[in-house]
Amino acid sequence: MIKVGIVGGTGYTGVELLRLLASHDEAQVVAITSRGENGRRVDNLFPNLRGYYDLAFSDPDIETLSACDVVFFATPHNVAMRMAPELLAAGCRVIDLSADYRLRDHERWSQWYGEPHASPETLAEAVYGLPEFNRHEVAKARLVACPGCYPTAIQLGFMPLLKAGLVDADHLIASAASAVSGAGRQAKIDNLLPEVSDSFKAYGVSGHRHLPELEQGLGDIAGAPVHMTFVPHMLPMIRGIHATLFARLSEPTTDVQALFEDFYANEPFVDVLPAGQYPQTRTVRGANRCQIAVEVPQGRDTVVVMATEDNLVKGASGQAIQNMNILFGLPETLGLVQLGLLP
Amino acid sequence: MIKVGIVGGTGYTGVELLRLLASHDEAQVVAITSRGENGRRVDNLFPNLRGYYDLAFSDPDIETLSACDVVFFATPHNVAMRMAPELLAAGCRVIDLSADYRLRDHERWSQWYGEPHASPETLAEAVYGLPEFNRHEVAKARLVACPGCYPTAIQLGFMPLLKAGLVDADHLIASAASAVSGAGRQAKIDNLLPEVSDSFKAYGVSGHRHLPELEQGLGDIAGAPVHMTFVPHMLPMIRGIHATLFARLSEPTTDVQALFEDFYANEPFVDVLPAGQYPQTRTVRGANRCQIAVEVPQGRDTVVVMATEDNLVKGASGQAIQNMNILFGLPETLGLVQLGLLP
Amino acid sequence: MIKVGIVGGTGYTGVELLRLLASHDEAQVVAITSRGENGRRVDNLFPNLRGYYDLAFSDPDIETLSACDVVFFATPHNVAMRMAPELLAAGCRVIDLSADYRLRDHERWSQWYGEPHASPETLAEAVYGLPEFNRHEVAKARLVACPGCYPTAIQLGFMPLLKAGLVDADHLIASAASAVSGAGRQAKIDNLLPEVSDSFKAYGVSGHRHLPELEQGLGDIAGAPVHMTFVPHMLPMIRGIHATLFARLSEPTTDVQALFEDFYANEPFVDVLPAGQYPQTRTVRGANRCQIAVEVPQGRDTVVVMATEDNLVKGASGQAIQNMNILFGLPETLGLVQLGLLP
Amino acid sequence: MIKVGIVGGTGYTGVELLRLLASHDEAQVVAITSRGENGRRVDNLFPNLRGYYDLAFSDPDIETLSACDVVFFATPHNVAMRMAPELLAAGCRVIDLSADYRLRDHERWSQWYGEPHASPETLAEAVYGLPEFNRHEVAKARLVACPGCYPTAIQLGFMPLLKAGLVDADHLIASAASAVSGAGRQAKIDNLLPEVSDSFKAYGVSGHRHLPELEQGLGDIAGAPVHMTFVPHMLPMIRGIHATLFARLSEPTTDVQALFEDFYANEPFVDVLPAGQYPQTRTVRGANRCQIAVEVPQGRDTVVVMATEDNLVKGASGQAIQNMNILFGLPETLGLVQLGLLP
């Protein structure tokens, strides 16, 4: 059994790791940390876990965590980059769900996050954990930087087109929308139900922190620099991301449906829908799955891709476990066969 | 492997049976019927099932269904009572999620449902499937009438008090609230999102069809006639039932917390919360579980019980599978270990 | 024109006062305070007000406020009781939407609010502002304590029965539910959309701060002590309160429908629905109106009353303006004719 | 007083006309039709109207309607085009909220709506009622075709850019999202709360009926043909439209903020937000207002416009009344000063 530690267990990606790992046959959570809830039983804070975990939150402590085979950081940015080096030195593997190791360039990181990177020397060995792009790299890693929730859906959506060199990579457009859980379990007026329910808005239009990650990742996929206009929106709902992607086709006559179906034919967690059917966030609710559709409206020269995922699963904790499975040589789907909860 | 047939597969309890049975090790769905969607793949209608079922809807046909070991009726009332006798004669077991076999008295049934009962002679062998009350009866049954969604939560909530003879059974009060999926997947203006979202209302106050079922079931539990005032409400949400129950205590000094904890100590699917913690529908979302709290406000003589469940799981399809497990001598929890999806 | 000051303008009752007063012909908001948002334009924080107010938040300052004819406190408790005496001394009228002056007995107040009352000597002149019960007292007041949101609906629902002496006042039951805006515009994890959306729960069952207010107010109505079991619930929605009330009838044969219709025949803001029609919170969304239905299920001896209101309007800011109209001898309905926003 | 008739009063645009006209000083609703609800009081179906209307639905009858000064069609398409000619002949003015008269070319109409146009000869005198574009034409009209909900927001969002010739009009992109009330008050499984709540999806990507209207309208604005990729989405909420618009700037250095502010400086119902502030659908809930923001992310060459409106007000009934005011020479804002309901 893989001994698992989780840093930052009181957030949404933390409780989601617990939910998913409860049915994972080869992993067991042995430590879960929280400064604020130190000593409180996890099933007292999250009663959905009652009967599944006999565990309490503890203070984040390098010694305890070092005894784990793998440590997940389910924290806001600025935590993993302080603790990871020591854990790696102690022989742990680290899977970071936060933004700390997503950008290769620490100056770019500083520019977007407004503070110096705390362990720039560790950045070099961080592997970006988008398995559908680079699972072979992940398999050899000690430190995995899980992609952001938006970047997962957007990269999976653009990947077949960019790999095939079919679109103008200089003017990619992503109009994406996330449920509120993407903003984390933090006390903010902006995310109170009366502020965001029954409403919709764009945010971060002038520059969202996922933009540099997107341009880096899509550039890696394309093998050349790309430029994107990225407009995120806030959805009045709990879970789910939907990305609507636009690009100019260089060869409008391409059968994009076949392209996508072939590209993802062997991927267990990417599901290209039949022509004419569009994804809904609800059909992947709670599942580690990205569902995708592609369309060329009116047969013109603009291709539209729609990609959905559960931001807490394929967009975060599920993908993190997928990376863990790869790291430890387990079947990639182990513990990740939950079906979407519909309705 | 138990061969399973499902009649009425396009409704919410139908798709929920499919979701849950996909991870059941001893059962396989071999037939699922729908007149309206005959020939359509189930995963085309319900894309959360893609990759889990290679099955299409078929016309309801006694011959096909007869080849099953067990047939679930996930239909509105008035279907099971027409088909069950023939299936039973063919050796099938029948688990009815509808109201057709819930009332022992066919005249009372007719009075509340506004038409004659189609197979009153079969009523005698129907067993009411509330395992926490009568699992030994269920184990011997061929025909199980699964309780309604409200009656499940309300009976589980009142059971310890009634069994202990602690409350005035002549004036029970249930103020309960259900999510909209309880109204079924049927085209009705009343259940459109703009009609029920961001709103709350009572309905059926003068007499809801679950009232006779409740008074019959609670009477069986109490061993004497009971009378209840039952006010159901419609919640602006997808899944979940919450029942708030009130009764006059005959012995106000009783330790009701201990009473409930002891009563349900060995029940896998009924979870009495620690004193002071109240249930939320979201902590049982997608789980076959009823979470209960009990309180005597201000130490007076009125006891308040709060009971929550997912109306589609413990209130319907999960409980139906729990009954199937009992019928076939399997562990009662088989295939029913999904954790609640929180948030 | 009445010069209006508002203390605590960044909360939900504050912005609702602004919305409603924007179309009031005889009142003008001249000062609105907020320590945190001092200097910020109100229409920057609340863009629905753009074009209607040329006003910025200022620090709460007795001098400025003293120049107003009336000052509304749209604050949490513990603010009005510190500032009201000075404003009253300066000749202002004070309308307090918070809990500070609702209980006549300052010791009882301290017991429920966990601190001493700051101006117990002022309590004696506070008038409880439920116009349908005591508008003549309000007309003569200098200091009005507006009822809580739950107490407004619950008292209006029970009033006809208590005045007629028709129910057992020793065992009143109120199962009520409020939208999340009732919890205020404050940064709390518990009220984030992912915590409360698509879910339902009871809270404060062992004792909610509205209980002593309810027992005091209902006792005044009944002319004798009453006892209530009060269970509030949290609804996954923005606005609205629904109270479901239960009581034992002493004379079950009474025509309660006629009783309610007669009782409220001349009330502009209480609307008794025709027999058989039940209220929904959405039909009073944004309107200063309480809609009520009454039913005696199965013709037994328990009466059920359903009462709805918008917690921010008839449950707070609308009623406060109604009180202002009475205080200043204006028509009670002035500025309060907004229709409910349906859907 | 203008005598108003409404055809199709049971839908969402019908009840919204009634809500808004209740506070219109110069208009009075004298007839409202519905085949299905003939004889039922409007306030029985829509209890938010209790006390404001003493009116019942009647059968649509040319004679009664002909006695009106103006008749609104709040119907699905295919009704107005059959009745309008006769009403016009009788001297009525007609304001059509449906799609029947929006396309000038009846063959194009047939192609998108799948049936012949019933009164192609009347199309020539229909005026497209987007007042901010052509209020002078509207003032002279007898028959006004109100824009669709999406086209209103999208045209207002693109108008300043197209008028200034600043964008590549051959590759406009609109990623827009509508609340469910946009789909009408019709019994459809697809719009049940459990189908659309807590979820998000695109629809009509291959071709939505608003596309030809958009290309016609935007072409009129630009004075040359335009091409648009239009992706509508369904939001899990009651009211509101948000359009996110993308276009390639021909002169990236333009001060688009100033352009928009100047363009709409004198428009009462179009509100350009200050730089850096983005619109939310909730701030225009219930108000006849379009709020707009514009941004050029990262200073590159793609401009992003965000435009919000309440789909039932500025996107339908409010704009229809605005057109009525223009038709009858009244102040354009009469009866349309409702503030947005926030929260």
UniProtKB/TrEMBL annotation, chains A, B, C, D:
GO CC, one annotated term: cytoplasm
Designated gene of the protein: argC
Keyword Electron transport found: no
Source organism, top-level taxon: Bacteria
Single GO MF descriptor: NADP+ binding
Family: Belongs to the NAGSA dehydrogenase family. Type 1 subfamily.
Domain annotation Semialdehyde dehydrogenase NAD-binding: ranges: 3-141
Pathway field: Amino-acid biosynthesis; L-arginine biosynthesis; N(2)-acetyl-L-ornithine from L-glutamate: step 3/4
Keywords for the protein's UniProt record, in alphabetical order: Amino-acid biosynthesis, Arginine biosynthesis, Cytoplasm, NADP, Oxidoreductase
The protein's name: N-acetyl-gamma-glutamyl-phosphate reductase
Single GO BP term: L-arginine biosynthetic process
Listed EC numbers: 1.2.1.38
Catalytic residue list: C149
Subcellular location: Cytoplasm
Principal cellular location given in the protein's record: cytoplasm
SUPFAM superfamilies, A to Z: Glyceraldehyde-3-phosphate dehydrogenase-like, C-terminal domain, NAD(P)-binding Rossmann-fold domains
Catalytically driven reaction(s): N-acetyl-L-glutamate 5-semialdehyde + phosphate + NADP(+) = N-acetyl-L-glutamyl 5-phosphate + NADPH + H(+)
Gene3D superfamilies documented for this protein: Dihydrodipicolinate Reductase, domain 2, NAD(P)-binding Rossmann-like Domain
CDD domains, per database record: AGPR_1_C, AGPR_1_N
UniProt keyword Amino-acid biosynthesis, yes or no: yes
Job of this protein: Catalyzes the NADPH-dependent reduction of N-acetyl-5-glutamyl phosphate to yield N-acetyl-L-glutamate 5-semialdehyde.
Protein source organism: Chromatocurvus halotolerans
